[in-house]
């Protein structure tokens, strides 16, 4: 017999629509982005500060109770608790500083012009000294002066019947020694360093294995250096002494022309002087 007193249970299933999972993730992302922005802002501010400002902030966090405007004994705080900061933050060059940079280009141009005028003045002094000197007057056609990109170049060249050195010898003749001593006095009027180079013609030695034009040209350049020192040139004024053999001919059409045998003394411009030391690997230009 069927039991009519049994309760009837009805189950209802609630269906949830897909596509919406709440907005909590958006809040978390916004917090994260805010934190990242704040972190990059702090990093940017720290890199824009100088060392004293960073030290002041570090002192403040070590002693946060120092709200009287002091970060240490007798030291002003980098923070102003009433608004603002006592020390300016370097935010990069201003428009005025950029304009001043263009002014520096003008200053450099003026400095180069001054150097050029100084060398031209020295050239005029040398030419006047050669004209006035009775000792140099017979040899003025062997003294060649010109201004090059490196500086004022003074060349003492051989003549067919009037060489500065005996053939194959690094020993200066008396008149060449006198010329160099006279030049030393005039060169000493400017503080520029000098470069000395020895040159030969293309005539080789019969036995070039033991001694050749490279060694001869270097020895002649050093002979000129010693004579300049004897004439009063300070040792520190000499930037370099080199022998170039016949690699830089004065007369390229005739490598055997005696005029190729010469001593070149260059009163160096500052840029050329600096380039010598940098080329040779000097760590710091003196």
Structure description:
There is one protein chain. With 286 residues, the protein is α+β, with helices and mostly antiparallel strands. It folds into 2 domains: 26-76, no CATH class; 115-279, OmpA-like domain (60s Ribosomal Protein L30, Chain: A). The chain contains 6 helices and 7 strands, in the order ααββαββαβαββα. Residues 69-87 have low confidence and may be disordered.
**Biggest beta-sheet profile:** 5 strands, mixed
Unreliable runs: 69-87
CATH topology of the largest domain: 60s Ribosomal Protein L30, Chain: A
SSE arrangement, N to C: HHEEHEEHEHEEH
Identify the CATH homologous superfamily of the largest domain: OmpA-like domain
Average of per-residue pLDDT values: 76
Radius of gyration: 40 Å
Number of domains: 2
Write down the overall geometry: elongated
* Alpha-carbon distance between the two ends: 122 Å
Give the helix tally. 6
Which structural class should the secondary elements be placed in?
alpha+beta
């Amino acid at each position: 017999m069927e039991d009519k007193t049994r309760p009837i249970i009805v189950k209802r299933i609630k269906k949830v629509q897909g596509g919406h999972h709440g907005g909590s993730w958006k809040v978390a992302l916004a917090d994260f982005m805010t934190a990242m922005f704040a972190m990059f802002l702090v990093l940017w501010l720290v890199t824009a500060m100088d060392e004293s400002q960073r030290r002041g902030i570090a002192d403040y966090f070590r002693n946060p109770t120092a709200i009287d405007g002091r970060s240490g004994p007798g030291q002003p705080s980098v923070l102003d608790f009433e608004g603002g900061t006592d020390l300016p933050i370097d935010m990069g060059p201003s428009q005025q500083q950029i304009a001043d940079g263009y002014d520096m280009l003008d200053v450099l141009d003026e400095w180069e012009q001054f150097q050029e005028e100084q060398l031209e003045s020295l050239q005029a002094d040398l030419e006047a000294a050669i004209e006035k000197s009775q000792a140099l007057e017979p040899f003025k056609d062997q003294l060649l002066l010109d201004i090059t990109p490196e500086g004022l170049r003074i060349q003492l060249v051989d003549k067919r019947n009037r060489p500065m050195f005996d053939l194959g010898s690094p020993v200066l003749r008396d008149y060449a020694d006198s010329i160099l001593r006279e030049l030393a006095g005039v060169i000493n009027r400017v503080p520029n360093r000098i470069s000395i180079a020895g040159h030969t013609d293309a005539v080789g030695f019969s036995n070039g294995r033991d001694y050749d034009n490279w060694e001869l040209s270097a020895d002649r350049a050093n002979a000129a250096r010693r004579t300049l020192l004897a004439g009063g040139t300070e040792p520190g004024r000499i930037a370099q002494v080199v022998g170039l053999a016949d690699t830089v001919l004065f007369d390229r059409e005739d490598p055997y022309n005696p005029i190729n045998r010469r001593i070149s003394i260059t009163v160096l411009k500052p840029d050329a002087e600096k380039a010598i030391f940098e080329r040779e690997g000097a760590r710091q230009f003196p």
